[in-house]
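User: Hi! I'm working on a homework problem where we have to compare a predicted structure to a textbook description. Could you give me the structure for the chain below?
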Amino acid sequence: MTMPAERTRALRWAGEFLRELQSSEGIDPAVKREILVILRHYPSGAEIRAHAQNDPNAAADAWLAPEDLLLPDSARHLSRK
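Assistant: Happy to help. Predicted structure tokens:
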């Protein structure tokens, strides 16, 4: 089962990946246009984190949660913040 903090991280990483692809050389122009269309409405990393922290449903069934809730202190350096 995916935990809310894992979902938050995956959502942020997907946006980062799309931004990297969009700025990469050698990507087909049609694919770059499609990525741009997706990113036009994709939340920024800051917006994702803010939503995860301010989720009014911050209960056990919340859809997003701050990423650091599930990371032990020793694994925090592995996150792509």
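For your comparison, note the following. The two ends are 23 Å apart (CA to CA). The chain has three helices and no strands. Good luck with the assignment!
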